[in-house]
Write a structure and sequence with these properties.
With 202 residues, the protein is mostly helical. Helix 2 runs parallel beside helix 7. The chain has a domain of 139 residues. The chain is built from seven helices and no strands. It starts with a helix and ends in a 13-residue tail after the last helix. It is globular, with a radius of gyration of 20 Å.
């Protein structure tokens, strides 16, 4: 049983790494074709920034599928998987909030008064602020995280549906939906441990 789980995880990891490399290469090539005058260091910085949601996307798929496979075969998940399932959605949520927040920095490229820039910055950061609040409430109640990030992912899906954008799915809605899936797994699979009653004689 353990060998079967290990083999599945190894093949799944290879597949996820390959898909990550292909996706990053496709995004980087598209960026290079649009703005060939970019310096090498700018190209590398863009690739690093794009890696944040892509690692989150394919990493979340790996965690969910490996835990699901183990749960299906054994009826439960190991303590190692339980810890990963617990922390993965919280760390992933912080990463995607940071990534979404990066786009608000474009406001400072505009020519406007400082107060107008500040107002624009806050407006552009409304999605990040809402997600931060959702994460705060979800930290101890994963069901809240499941619902909040599911709604956020579905809201972002409108860009995928209307623009038929696979890139938008990989960078925004997909990671949000997978974070919702991780919170769901934490909620449903990580049952709280009931402490044994203290021995009255002790």
């Amino acid at each position: 049983m353990t060998a079967k789980i290990s083999r599945f995880n190894r093949l799944l990891l290879i597949l996820m790494v390959a898909l990550y490399v292909i996706s990053l290469g496709a995004f980087s090539y598209a960026n290079w074709m649009v703005e060939r005058e970019h310096l090498l260091w700018m190209f590398l910085v863009n690739a690093l920034i794009l890696s944040l949601p892509l690692v989150l996307f394919f990493g979340s798929i790996y965690v969910l599928l490996s835990a699901w496979h183990e749960h299906r075969l054994t009826g439960q998940i190991s303590s190692r998987h339980a810890k990963i399932i617990h922390w993965a959605p919280r760390i992933a949520a912080m990463v995607i909030i940071f990534f979404i927040g990066l786009f608000s920095l474009d406001v400072f490229d505009m020519e406007a008064a400082p107060l107008e820039l500040l107002a624009g910055f806050l407006i552009h950061n409304l999605p990040s602020i809402i997600l931060i609040l959702a994460l705060v409430f979800a930290w101890r109640r994963p069901v809240i995280g499941f619902i909040a990030f599911l709604i956020a992912g579905l809201i972002f899906m409108r860009f995928v549906i209307f623009d038929l954008s696979l890139g938008h799915f990989l960078l925004f809605s997909g990671p949000l939906l997978l974070i919702a899936g991780l919170f769901f797994a934490d909620w449903r699979w990580n049952k709280p441990q009931i402490s044994a009653p203290l021995d009255a004689a002790a």
